[in-house]
Amino acid sequence: MAGKGAATQCVAKWKEQTRRSLDRWKDRAAQQFAGRNVRYGLSLPRTEQLDQNNLWQHTVQKFDTAGVQQERSRFQRDAVARYLTAMLDKELWLTADQREPLEALVRESLPESFRPRQTYLKEVELLVIPLFGIADDDVSQVLTKSQQAAWQEIRNQFQVNGRTVLMDTQNGNQFHFALPP
Q: Which of 171, 134, 175, 172 is nearest to 152 (CA)?
């Protein structure tokens, strides 16, 4: 019941935000783009909003008598490790023998629980954790020399300033990602 209520609240909030955004865009388009074709993209509701819903949080805490929340966090961490390993596999062309050890390194580099702050850059924010959290010695034990060079090229797309990773964009902006402790 709480899941349905939380989902209903999240969808209602999404619909309200989307309608407001669409109305603003219509007004702006009528003024700036009169007579021209204009495309407008709508975002989808995000499942992360369910985890942040007070009704859902209260219900999960109330019924978490057997460590369900810890199990869920572990499952999510494993899923993120598999996902990041798959992303890295696309770039590094991992062999079957390399996937499992790299996934273990990625999993170890992830914090117990982590919520990306910038949901539209979630993949990048998650990717910087193993890129800068796994020691070079550990990487060299799993990857070949050419894969290590590719790993380094991926890392070179970012700048590190203490526990903050910076990413420059093509339009001159910069995104900041805080590395978890």
A: 134
Mention every residue, 6+ apart, whose C-beta is less than 8 A from residue 174: 166, 167, 168
Question: What is the rounded CA–CA span in Å between residue 171 and residue 167?
Answer: 12
Nearest to 176 by CA among 112, 124, 101: 124
pLDDT in tens, 74-99: 888 899 999 999 999 999 999 999 99
Task: Describe the strand order of the beta sheet including 159-161 as a list of residue ranges.
Answer: 159-161, 164-168, 174-178
Query: Cα–Cα–Cα angle for 114, 118, 119, nearest 5°?
Result: 85
Contact 118, 175 (CB under 8 A): yes
C-alpha span between 146 and 175 (Å, rounded): 28
Q: What is the pTM of this model?
A: 0.62
145 and 105 in contact (C-beta within 8 Å)? Answer: no
What is d(CA 90, CA 156) in angstroms, rounded to the nearest whole number? 17
The answer to whether 19 and 65 have CB atoms below 8 angstroms apart is no
Residue type, 110: L
Sequence-ordered strand ranges (E) for 92-170:
159-161, 164-168
